[in-house]
Amino acid sequence: MLLLTKIFDFETAHAIDGYNGLCKNIHGHSYELHVTVGSIVNENAFLPAPGFLLDFKDLKTIVQKAVVDLFDHKLVLSHNYIAQHPEVLEQENLVSWDAEPTAENLLLFIKWAIQDELPTDMKLVELRLYETKNSYATWKEEVEVYQGDIW
């Protein structure tokens, strides 16, 4: 199997409802998202022309549209948070969510948003979302055995 990873950056603010720590307040992160996709290949031969699994430009287009454009320079808050702080409705860059906008929930959303946009021969393998340079959450596809060229 060959894997490709592309890295994306976006700036997003959020607050976590029901949390009794600093993250209950609106604050922002410079997120760094690593998207890894893969495909099963014949490892005993070079790839046929054009010689790559997926053009990095095409992966960028998918993730930019489904993720970065949605979250970059936006304020993401849960419906619960908004109900308790209706003044935030005045924000023109507000994204209202069913869930708390934690790194874990962002990763699940990102997975759902891009997995079906990939070419059929490509599989979303891993997502890694950094909130800071030292703190990140990871989602990985759980596949134990690859048989032939079927996932």
From TrEMBL:
**Single GO MF annotation:** 6-carboxytetrahydropterin synthase activity
**Cofactor(s) for this protein?**
Zn(2+)
Q: Which reaction does it catalyse?
A: 7,8-dihydroneopterin 3'-triphosphate + H2O = 6-carboxy-5,6,7,8-tetrahydropterin + triphosphate + acetaldehyde + 2 H(+)
Q: Which UniProt keywords apply?
A: Lyase, Metal-binding, Zinc
Q: What is its EC number?
A: 4.1.2.50
**Top-level taxon:** Bacteria
- Name of the protein described by the UniProt record: 6-carboxy-5,6,7,8-tetrahydropterin synthase
Please report the organism this UniProt entry assigns to the protein.
Lacibacter cauensis
